[in-house]
Write a structure and sequence with these properties.
The structure holds two protein chains of two kinds. Chain A is of the alpha/beta class. Chain A has a domain at about 5-275. Chain A contains ten helices and 20 strands. Chain A has helices at about 5-15, 25-40, 55, 75, 115-120, 125-130, 140-145, 380-385, 395-410, 415-430, and strands at about 85-90, 95, 110, 150-155, 165-170, 180, 185-190, 195-200, 210-220, 225-230, 235-245, 250-260, 265-275, 280-285, 290-300, 305-315, 320-330, 340-345, 355-360, 370-375. In chain A, helix 2 runs antiparallel to helix 7 (about 140-145), helix 8 crosses helix 9 (about 395-410) and helix 9 runs antiparallel to helix 10 (about 415-430). By secondary structure, chain B is of the alpha/beta class. Chain B has a single domain, classed as Rossmann fold (3-Layer(aba) Sandwich), CATH 3.40.50. Chain B is built from nine helices and twelve strands. In chain B, the strands form three sheets. Chain B has a six-stranded mixed β-sheet, with helices on both faces. Chain B has a four-stranded antiparallel β-sheet with strand order 2-1-4-5. The chains are: A alpha/beta, B alpha/beta. At the A-B interface, helix 8 and helix 9 of A face helix 2, strand 6, strand 7 and helix 3 of B.
Chain lengths: ~425, ~250
């Protein structure tokens, strides 16, 4: 049976496991109809022209993992940013692990989507925010239809959340192939600040497909710093759709670090509903082998006097392929918009490739919008310069690549994350050099 | 120290060096002069191990070891240093981190541990002072937005840090005002000893007033066509290169 048919026919069984009287029941039903109608995206869709899901969809995925799986903290410690005090929302094969998590209801809610979707005290937030900014395309609707578990974070107004929140989804590989569909909702009220780190990690070589949807609402003057660390095994694929709704004077930054995974697709949509806010979308991608990474961004400037900054760096080795499709939409009313986009790439082999496509649609006449895209090789003269000073080829290459991604790394506000990313990059490049740029 | 025998080298099939013979002993300073396009920078790059240049014939011996097959970094580890005519800008890598990496990689090649941070800092401070380099300068991205003089001073600063056996200064004087020239030359002179050697490549005799050569060679059409002492440099400054060309042509 095709995966699509399997999923559609599983929906009834899924409905039996959830409360059909819950307010989201209608939303789920609506969503499965959309998925039934649109299905998975194909290369015929403009937004998926360079990314084919065929190789990912061919597996016979388990949709509902049967058994509860447990893992010991010591086995997975390395996937945490463990040298900082943090809240943790941890899932194993899609199920919440209370054992590994550290949630809170003390002034803020850092807990589970499954509770939020069923308990009356969260009903108002769910009604106001759930599925309100998420995309209504086939793949996100599939997630909506099966939405049951994930992180639920609500920060009421005037809270500065001192500890970052780590959301990690593990898959154990106890199923021969597993489909995970986490659903996260993050609501940050007026004048509050929160930092979030998200990671998806498979623990075996069995295929895993994660179709994740995250909705973020940043109210007036809210600050949200979000970090996605994508360094999964090359048997795991990720489709991450994150949509952000920002209100006036808010600041939201999203860093996406992509080093692992077989196929990674990031749909990142920012909607600026208000004045004098800014949105930052930064990314570093370093992949090799046959890995594929596709960044699809949208920043929609709806009102005047706002800014957006996009800076994506990509390094592609071997047969790796990359896509950057960045769309900036400026409404007629959105005068004095400053929108910047840059996408710089280095191809390390003749067989690696990147498709970079900026799309600017500007309907206002008093704006500053710029985009730049470069594709090049490592600078040979810089290589010789460094080697002539005694830095071996591999280390010289690594140093150049660090330097290339340095301005994005520099914008990371949590030093431990920057250190971790630096370490992941050094491992990825097979070097052990103590430079801290 | 360095012995070059009948060296022929080409780039993209075009012969540039056509039989260079040169011997540089420890403690000596050699100047290589010559008109544009005579092969001076090529000779420097070939000694340093630039891969685009193909050595077709001949030998480069460093302390009696043939280094032709060695990669640029291996030659550096053996004590070869090239001060670039056009130092490369490397945004995102600070001067300090670059030199630290270079020193520690060189130590690693010799089986030594990293230099302790304290010693490194002390050394950086001393050498920066020698070349009158401001501290702030050291945290800037390597060569990015440096003036011509700053770039050259930074080259000699790196030379001071790496303490090479054989230093090749490729047109280090170009783009230097008189003060910077004095600082750079003074730095080189302080680093000179009976155990190391310096090759100065230049168009002009100006630098040679400050770094006084033991021998002066004229490179023309890929060959050393004339050698002499420092007086030869004065003669070239006065009369230009035409008489050399005529001599060779005749």
């Amino acid at each position: 049976m095709e995966l699509k048919d399997k999923l559609v026919s599983s929906f009834m069984a899924f409905e039996d496991t959830v409360d059909v009287d819950a307010p989201v029941h209608d939303v789920r039903n609506e969503a499965i109809k959309i998925f039934e109608d649109k299905g998975f995206p194909s290369k015929r869709d403009e937004a998926w022209k360079y990314t084919s899901l065929n190789s990912v969809l061919k597996h016979d995925y388990s949709v509902f993992p049967k058994q509860e799986n447990a893992i010991e903290f010591s086995d997975i410690k390395k996937y945490f940013i463990h040298d900082i005090d943090s809240y943790k929302i941890i899932f194993i094969d899609g199920k919440y692990s209370s054992h590994l998590s550290q949630t809170t209801h003390d002034g803020i809610d850092v807990c589970l989507m499954s509770s939020a979707l069923t308990k009356p005290k969260y009903q108002l937030i769910i009604e106001n925010y759930f599925n309100k900014v998420a995309s209504k395309d086939g793949i996100s609707s599939l997630n909506t239809a099966f939405s049951k578990e994930g992180a639920y974070i609500h920060i009421p107004k005037n809270k500065l959340v001192a500890k970052p929140i780590q959301i990690i989804h593990f898959s154990t590989g106890n199923e021969s192939a597993l489909l995970l569909q986490p659903r996260n909702l993050i609501v940050v009220d007026e004048n509050s600040h929160v930092q979030i780190i998200e990671r998806h990690q498979s623990l075996t070589e069995n295929p895993v497909l994660t179709n994740s949807v995250t909705e973020i609402f940043a109210a007036k003057r809210a600050i949200v710093d979000y970090y996605k660390i994508q360094n999964d095994k090359e048997s795991a694929s990720l489709i991450d759709s994150t949509s952000v709704n920002q209100k006036r004077e808010s600041h939201v930054s999203m860093h996406t670090f992509t080093f692992g995974g077989k196929l990674t697709r990031n749909n990142l949509n920012f909607y600026q509903n208000g004045e004098r806010m800014d949105s930052t979308l930064n990314g570093v991608t370093i992949i090799g082998n046959k890995q594929h990474v596709d960044h699809n961004t949208l920043v929609h400037h709806i009102e005047p006097n706002c800014e957006s900054h996009q800076d994506y760096k990509g390094i592609f080795a071997d047969n790796a392929t990359g896509v950057f499709n960045g769309k900036v939409l400026v409404n007629k009313e959105a005068q004095k918009t400053n929108a910047f986009q840059s996408n710089n790439n280095i191809l390390l082999s003749d067989k690696a490739s990147i498709n970079s496509k900026p799309q600017l649609e500007i309907f206002a006449d008093d704006v500053k919008c710029s985009h730049g895209c470069t594709i090049g090789q490592l600078d040979e003269s810089a290589m010789f310069y460094m080697r002539s000073r005694g830095i071996p080829e591999k280390e010289a290459k690594a140093l150049l690549m660090f330097a290339f991604s340095n301005n994005v790394l520099d914008s990371v506000k949590i030093p431990e994350i920057k250190q971790r990313i630096t370490k992941i990059i050094a491992n990825k490049l097979g070097v052990n050099i103590g430079f801290d740029l | 120290m360095l012995e070059i025998k009948d060296l022929h080298a080409s780039v993209e099939g075009k012969g540039i060096l056509r039989g260079i013979n040169l011997e540089v002993k420890a403690g000596e300073v050699h100047a290589i002069m010559g008109p544009n396009g005579s092969g001076k920078s090529t000779l420097a790059s070939v000694i340093a191990g630039k891969e685009e240049y193909e050595v077709e014939k001949g030998q480069i011996l460093l302390n009696d070891e043939d280094i032709e097959e060695l990669a640029a970094e291996e030659r550096a580890h053996k004590g070869v240093f090239l001060s670039f005519q056009y130092p490369v800008e490397i945004p995102g890598v600070s001067v300090t981190n670059f030199i630290k990496t270079a020193i520690n990689e060189t130590r690693k090649s010799k089986g030594l541990d990293d230099m302790p941070a304290k010693d490194m800092l002390k050394m950086i401070r001393e050498k920066a002072e020698l070349l009158e380099i401001d501290r702030k300068f050291l945290s800037r991205s390597l060569n990015e937005g440096f003036s011509g003089g700053e770039k050259k001073r930074n080259e000699i600063f790196q030379m001071a840090m790496l303490e090479p056996k054989l230093a090749i200064l490729d047109e280090t004087d170009s783009g230097l005002d008189i003060d910077a020239l004095r600082i750079v030359a003074n730095g080189v002179n302080k680093l000179k000893s009976k155990d190391n050697a310096v090759i100065v490549i230049t168009h002009y005799q100006r630098l040679l007033d400050h770094i006084v050569p033991d021998f002066v060679h004229v490179l023309y059409n890929g060959r050393i066509v004339k050698s002499g002492t420092k007086e030869l440099a004065h003669e070239l400054e006065e009369k230009g290169y035409d008489w050399i060309k005529e001599e060779v042509g005749a």
